[in-house]
Amino acid sequence: MIQVLFVCLGNICRSPMAEALFRDLVKKEGLTHQITVDSAGTSDWHIGSPPHKGTLNILKDYHINADDLVCRQFTKEDFKAFDYIVGMDESNLQNIYKILGQPEHPKIIRLLDLTNHQKDVPDPYYTGDFQETYDLLNEGCQLLLEKIKKERL
Ligand code: 4NP
pLDDT tens, 36-93? Predict the structure, then answer.
């Protein structure tokens, strides 16, 4: 089983949106039995909470299932458990390294580094623009699935 973890700051806006989006892509490609998907936040601010209303609304607009998305915090154990740890922006990566007490690792990547344009996923908690975030995550998630297929399937 290939395990993919999306990580942001709060785990209520970007990473749960990426989790739901990527799980939907995996399902559409018939890979559910080979890839598991989860998300976490580097902060403990929203542990136990559902995603932000804006994230739930846009997932609903695209008919993507958002059941069972509950905020949790990223832990050191996640580093061992997951094969791909995918941050949304540079500060997420820095926070992950801080929690792990180590700088960089090939399995820790920033999603939009897979694209050839902007590298950080804007945080709709501050921008209010959930559509912009959805579009970038959609593009990044498709490229991530291609990368995983090439490397592992
Ligand atoms: P996220 O966005 O990291 O994409 O989930 C945020 C959610 C909550 C907060 C900041 C960013 N907050 O300050 O509570």
Answer: 999 999 999 999 999 999 999 999 999 999 999 999 999 999 999 999 999 999 999 9
Query: How remote is the CA of residue 146 from the centroid of ligand 1, in Å?
Result: 28
109 in Cβ contact with 84 (< 8 Å): yes
- Evaluate: CB of 20 within 6 angstroms of ligand 1: no
Strands 108-110 and 2-8, sheet pairing: unpaired
**CATH code of the domain covering residue 26:** 3.40.50.2300
81-100 pLDDT tens trace? 999 999 999 999 999 999 99
Domain with 111, as residue range(s), is 2-152
Question: How far apart, in whole angstroms, are the C-alpha atoms of residue 47 and residue 118?
Answer: 29
| Structural domain count, the chain | 1
Distance 50 CA to ligand 1 centre (A): 12
